[in-house]
Amino acid sequence: MLVWNDLPLLILLLVSAFGAVIVRDLIGAVLILGSYSFFLALTWAWLGSSDVAFTEAVVGSGMSTVLFLFALFQTVPKENPSSHRDTPWFAAIGLGILGLLLLYGGTDVPRSGDLAAPANVYLSPIYIQQSSAQMNTPNMVTAILMDYRSLDTLIETAVVFTAGVACAILLRRQNP
Amino acid sequence: MIAAHDSLIVHTITRVLLPVIQLYGIYVLFFGQYGPGGGFVGGVIFGASLILTLLVFGARSNENYLAKRALRVEGLGLIIFAGIGGLCMIFAGQFLNYSAVPIPGFDLPTTRSIGIVGTMIGVAVDIAVTTISIVDSLSLADQEGRLV
Fold this sequence. Notes:
The complex is a heterodimer. Chain A has helices at 7-22, 26-46, 50-72, 89-106, 118-121, 124-135, 140-148, 150-171. By secondary structure, chain A is mainly α. In chain B, α1 (8-31) packs antiparallel against α2. Chain B has helices spanning 8-31, 39-57, 65-70, 76-90, 108-140. Chain B contains five helices and no strands. In chain B, 41% of the residues are buried. At the A-B interface, α3, α6, α7 and α8 of A face α2, α4 and α5 of B.
């Protein structure tokens, strides 16, 4: 079911995503990718999930753009045209079929805010009713991330730390 | 190695904006219990302010001593997070069950709230230190053309 109010944001998302792929200048592609993340953050905010929107705006259009630019300073800023020799027919047909399958499967996904959806039936009411009383935390997202599911957050923190260590191991070698 | 930016305007505006950005990062970190935000976003904003000092004042200046100090405590955030979990196990609770730690003068919900604040500080420290570490790794690579 398409809601017509979402259509301008959806068009902006598609246009910026296509632009980031098509543009040959890599620095321009990185900046278009940042604007794509910003439109995605607007979409999350439009759908009512402000925590995800905040994270997407800060990480997607802020931090990852800076890291991409730092990585690009080590290379040439133009895409190598020899990497476009032949059309990858297998990937093109396979991705088309995959997109059709995803569209077909998307018809079964419950709508946003559906009371009969499985996620809203048995676990969310407990969080909504009890998180403020159990831990003095009115923001339920923080309560879930940091208390109910804190082990997941610990492993995510470990993943970020591992990324930093991997960058240091790869890039700070004395004798390559 | 990152050289310093040579524009006076950029230097002045950075000196004005920097405390505001860092204060906003800390605000987002501690306001995460009451509104959008939290440890991850606060850590990213604080790390972005450290990257700004590195880009504007250069890698060798004295203004970015905080970024240089941050490189020495890589992994501190993970230790804070996992240490709070271990503290809960020492007081005979489950791992990361904050209500097991008895803090005198606080009731049970406040204890869990304090545990959430502690783990958010751990996440923020880990994210900020990791971002500045990745930027330092990437900027070290072009020194004397070591890589490639």
